[in-house]
Protein 1
Amino acid sequence: MRGALLDRDGVLLLLDEEALYRKALELGAYGAGKERALALLARVVRRVNEAVRTLSVRTLEEEEALFQTLAEEVARELRAPLSKLRGLRYYHFMRPAPGALDLLQSLKARGLKVGVLSNTLPSLKESLVHHGLGEYVDRFYASCALGLAKPDPKAFLLALQDLALPPPEVLYLDDDPENVRVARTLGLRAEVYVPGQPMSLGG
């Protein structure tokens, strides 16, 4: 085994619902109330998921424009200062998954080339750097930047081509069984991964 390709959401990062709730409390205090703030933040999450699903945000600049627009809308509707929203990104409301750091350190200690393939916005690298995990990853493959999303086999093949590794030499970990199934059909050593659960990395 010479490389590892990992999913991000559900493997390395998880939604931080507590952080989202705290932000709703902060924004709601300007008069609109917590429930209205939570509803608006939920709408933002849906807008972000839609951008990921449609691959409509292809660059970091387009992502910056999206979040600027969302921040202005939320600030206006909640009558909150724009400064409380400017610069926020979806990954500020995520947290490292249990065992994520240990997993990455273990892979790097084995001398493996590590890539992350995720259905997400272009700021995949920035999201992992923000949470202290980026230094253990060699290559970053965001669906929006690739123009392809899992489980499309071409997304996996593009990552493998860039890693310059044959499928049988690459371990693939994902929390989505469908992505694991597709990876296996391509010849990767793919496993469904549960954060924090002990697993053997094999030979």
Protein 2
Amino acid sequence: MATPATETQSVRAQAKWVRTSARKARVVAEHIRGRSVPEARAVLAFTPRAAAREIERVLASAVANAEANHGLAGDTLVVTTAVVDEGPTLKRWRARARGRVARIKKRTCHITVTLAPGEIVQPPAPKAKPETPKAEEAPKPKRAAAKPKTAAKPRTTRAKKTEEAES
């Protein structure tokens, strides 16, 4: 079946069984969605998380697929989707006190990046507030006169009180 001419061509790359949790990788994947490939590479290069290296490898693979298989230029592509799904969990055991064991879950994930040629989809800029003409500023109300501070009574110590009481 032939694809319609109006449909845009998309390229996909996937890395399976990556040894990081899906939750940690999703945080990084959110940063590159909707960005151009050069911008996404720059973001991933300066992201300090370990999952950024894995997502960067998948992005590079998707760009290579686009250039080799579809004749697209890598710099004109946009990351349309970056999805991180959970993979199988490796279950391991660790010895604990008094003959007990603790389960260790070594989580894996599947990372999928889809690229498409097109323009970068940016959120609309916030609308500027229309400046309202200011009415003449009314004079500020004056404060009521403050009460004059009275001098604080000198504190008497217990020793002085006892001396006064004895005399």
Protein 3
Amino acid sequence: MATQAPINIFDPSVLLDPYDAYAQLREGPALHFVPEMNVHVASRYDVVKAIIQDTKTFSSEYAVFFDTLRAAGIAAATPEVRAELERLQGELVEQVPTMLTLDEPGHSKYRSLVSALFTAGEIRKSEATVQAVVDDTIASLEDATAIEFMEGFAFPVPLTIIGQRLGIPEEDVPLFEKGATAAASGLRLTPLTGEQMIERAQTAVDLQNLLIRLTEERRSNPTDDMISILANARLEDEDRLLNHPEIQSILNQFLVAGHETTTSAFGWGMLLLCKEPDIQERVARDPDVLQTFIEESLRLEAPVQGLPRLVTRDTEIQGCPVKQGEIIFLRYGSANRDEAKFEQADSCKLDRKKAGAHFSFGAGVHACIGAPLSRQELSLGWKALLDMGKNFRLSPDQPEPQAEMSFILRNLPELHIEFDR
């Protein structure tokens, strides 16, 4: 029999600060069953790693899980809102699995089409472009000594960079940024009014139409960007170009993964510096520990707290039985703080060896393809911030920063800080 979890880690109040609950789960068996979500939860590092490595038994083709969640959200709306949402849903192209929600060999078939953009050589070539975005964002702060950090820096830097990488024309940037923000917000649990639900759905349609238009334009006039690559890529085994559902699926994944994770990493990293002045002082004084700080801040507050896996056959994990068709939710945020893997796991240790051995960018065949770009943005961004200011601290007249509720993501919607130039 499955062991029921002693606490529902998906309860909204727990999601705000899940780490005590994670610790409780790690002390027990390899898996816990959460009846409220009808899923098993893997919280320990060794268990998460084993499941990630066994892609045949634990499949990434779990899209039905999110379809169920979306259907539940729509069902709670009024009949009028539901009708409008269904109408707008009808304007979207078919949802098809490509990279994140596809197993091998299909996963690599699509991933290989864009992997050339994220090689070490390409990342090195992009350094000047990333640095320019960082510098422009710093300059936009002018002489400020108090800012809302998420809006002022953490949000615009990654979003501008992924927009450039995709090839969004300047005149379409406002719609792109609105659409990318809406796509990420769809993974959160913040309650929406019927009007807000409709607005978000309309934004998804508008963004889709923009990306389809750009895809068609780049088929005739390709440039050096991701949309051009996808627009002209051929699936050799089928001898055809990618269709619009496939291209939309890939681009939508980059919309969220390309900015949300880095934005969150900047936010949680800044909060860590504000709360740990000794760490802030050492990182500012010793550039050699900056990369360890980046990895530790990613480990402590994983921007992606977890993802599901679909069980493909009856099996067991360290004595815990699971059946074909059941869902296991991997909790990266818990595994990253497992004392069996990381000594003093709840602390930022600037001398930690192998600090990058966390799951904040996933692992295995589905490891985040954009992780090198994200690390580059974080490295250049933190250098610029620490050159700009010192004594970063929380604004005393603002409420304590708090995470936004989500089954998947962990982000700070607001972070008000002060600093000295």
Protein 4
Amino acid sequence: MRYASIRKLDISNGEGIGASLFVQGCHFHCKNCFNKNTWDFDGGKEWTKDVEKKFMQLVESSYIKRISILGGEPLANENLKDVSDLVSELRVKYPITEKKDTTYSDKNNSKHNILIKNSDEIRLSYPEKTIWLYTGYTWEQIMYPVVTDDFNPERDKLLKMRRDIVKRCDVIVDGRYEEDKRDITYHWAGSTNQRVIDVQESLKQNQVVLWKNS
């Protein structure tokens, strides 16, 4: 895999303050794409173990609450292996944890946070980092790909890898950018056909569930 850039203190590509990795290479070539320099799979810089180590050190910072992976196309076949390895490493370090109800109601039915004095419990109860992934593929294309019946183990391996990457994320922004649906007021996406999807809730409910603030 090659990458175009790494952005620190990113506030545009997801909720909160994050660090963003722009991978190199895309087959979609959306009209008026804001990042055409990432289309060429031979462009950018080489993603090495040293670069990956520096990226992991960057996201360790306490002020980084989100890691975004975009491009280019992170789920292009050419990028799947390295993106999968990166997401797996991030997920081991920052696992998805169940959000628990940490409130109670008093006699006036007012809500109070029972963990307000225990920052360690709060940190254990909520994920320290969320992983966001931007892709031109739709949720349906990733989770329910239409394939022919011919025997193709290599294709099936790539399709499974794509699904597995998404399943380890917290949020994906799906679909290609469409110029006629551009909306600068639309949170975290370029055009209104794109959806900001809560991955874990969507998997639980077996249907697309939008991220709470989208």
